[in-house]
Structures are given as structure tokens and as C-alpha cells.
Specification:
This protein has helices spanning about 15-25, 40-50, 65-75, 100-125, 140-145, 150-170, 195-200, 215-225; strands spanning about 5-10, 30-35, 55, 85, 130-135, 175-180, 235-240. It has about 240 residues and is α/β, with parallel strands linked by helices. The protein has one domain (about 5-235): 3-Layer(aba) Sandwich (Rossmann fold), CATH 3.40.50.720. The protein has a seven-stranded parallel sheet with strand order 3-2-1-4-5-6-7, sandwiched between helices. The mean pLDDT is about 95.
């Protein structure tokens, strides 16, 4: 088991890639703290993870709640955190001309600022051991762009540059920072693409099928593990060779 004995926080673990990542980490031997936003998500997530994860219910965009969550992790683990997966995020498909500044700010708060703050607090827990791995959930559109995704793609592009910059700053302390950039993954975020639209999108994927959350989760798990001990500052695209 490649994550045996490690303690990992996964944000946005209620469904999709986040839930799959939490499951993968547990299966590979990790102690998992799984974040969900709403109280009604706690029970289903606990059950989905077979009662093996510790569920933390808080809004990743609320700084006070984030500090409280990290204080709880610190108290329960004797200040140990080996891995952080910044998966929590919100998705918006909207015309560039019709996206309001308020909508753009919300995307920035959740997708960018929350990742930045979680990474800061996680790094402070990792520094004493001079060991740790942070994985940020980037996106294919953050690197390549896409019509009607200007605001969302902008936030994911921020994550890519943030990933590379933090990696260069904390590398001397043996803390690795990488990103995973999924393409079209079968999840709640893409469920509304049906029939002809779905088929049309798949013509732009060399593997001609959507990816599965577990296929992203296994890439995340690899980057969290010692198998990736000399990999940092990289964005791993998990997209079936897409060419949207």
C-alpha cells in the first residue's frame, strides 16, 4: 500500500473525484480527513467511506472555519499532516460577456483563495518533519482554455501557476507540490452533457470515452506517495489525450 501510515486531508470529498480520492487513499493505507461543505453531506460521505474516514464539515472559503478544521487535525494527529488534496471547487459554464464580477469572485474564493490558504496551513504542519505532498486539482481548460469557460478556466490557470511557484519555494524542505488536470470526467459536474453533445465531445478525446473519477484519484494517490518522491512543480494531465 503506497500511502501506508500517511495522514491526508481531501477537500470536497462529497462526490466525484474528491470522494474517489478519499476512497483511494483509504484503500492504500492512509488516515483520511474528508472535508464536506454542508451538514447534510456528513452522513452520506461517512457511509460512502465505510466509516473509515474522519469527516470535517466546513466551507473551504471561510477562513475562520478552515483554521478551526486545521486546529482539529493538529490536535488529533499531534501536528502531523503528510498530504493535502485541494479538490474542492465550483464549476461555471457561462458566456464571458454574461459572467458577473460577483460570480467571478465566488469562483476565485473557492477555487483559488481556498487552495492558497489550505496550502499555507498544510505546509506549516509539514515543515517540522520536512516532508509532505500537496496536490491541487487543476483542469484541462485551465491550461488550454475553452469557450464559455473564461472565468472557470482563469481560476484553474491560477492554480497551475500557484502550484509551480509554491513548489519552487518549499522544495528545499522536501515538500512537493503538484497538480492534476482532469479532462472530461464522468461526474456530477459533467452529468448534464447528454446524448449528441456528449457524443460530440467524445470525438475530441483520443481514447473516445470519458474518464472515471478513480482514474484521476489514482494519479493523485501516486503524487501523494513516495513513488513520486522527486516529482514536484508538475501538472499531470489526466484527459485521455483530449484535443478540445
Amino acid at each position: 500500500m503506497i500511502l501506508q501510515g500517511k495522514t491526508i486531508l481531501v477537500t470536497g470529498a462529497y462526490t466525484g473525484i474528491g470522494l474517489a480520492t478519499a476512497k483511494y487513499c483509504l484503500a492504500e493505507g492512509a488516515r483520511v480527513f474528508a472535508n464536506v461543505k454542508e451538514e447534510h453531506m456528513v452522513g452520506p460521505t461517512y457511509d460512502a467511506l465505510s466509516g473509515e474516514a474522519e469527516i470535517l464539515q466546513y466551507d473551504v472559503a471561510d477562513a475562520q472555519s478552515v483554521r478551526a478544521a486545521f486546529a482539529k487535525i493538529e490536535a488529533q494527529t499531534h501536528s502531523t499532516l503528510d498530504g493535502l488534496v485541494n479538490n474542492a471547487g465550483i464549476f461555471r459554464e457561462e458566456s464571458f460577456l454574461e459572467t458577473s464580477l460577483e460570480q467571478f469572485s465566488e469562483l476565485l474564493d473557492v477555487n483559488v483563495k481556498a487552495t492558497f490558504f489550505h496550502s499555507q496551513l498544510a505546509t506549516k504542519l509539514m515543515l517540522p518533519k520536512k516532508s509532505g505532498s500537496i496536490v491541487n486539482m487543476c483542469s484541462y481548460v485551465g491550461t488550454h482554455g475553452a469557450a464559455f469557460f473564461a472565468a472557470y478556466a482563469s481560476t484553474k490557470g491560477c492554480l497551475a501557476s500557484m502550484t509551480k511557484s509554491i513548489a519552487k519555494e518549499v522544495g528545499a524542505d522536501n515538500i512537493r507540490v503538484n497538480g492534476v488536470a482532469p479532462g472530461f470526467i464522468a461526474s456530477n459536474m459533467t452529468a448534464h452533457y447528454q446524448d449528441e453533445i456528449h457524443d460530440m465531445l467524445m470525438t475530441n478525446v483520443a481514447m473516445a470515452r470519458p474518464g472515471q473519477p478513480l482514474e484521476v484519484a489514482s494519479a493523485v494517490g501516486f503524487l501523494l506517495s513516495e513513488q513520486a518522491s522527486y516529482i514536484s512543480g508538475q501538472i499531470l494531465e489526466v484527459d485521455g489525450a483530449a484535443f478540445f
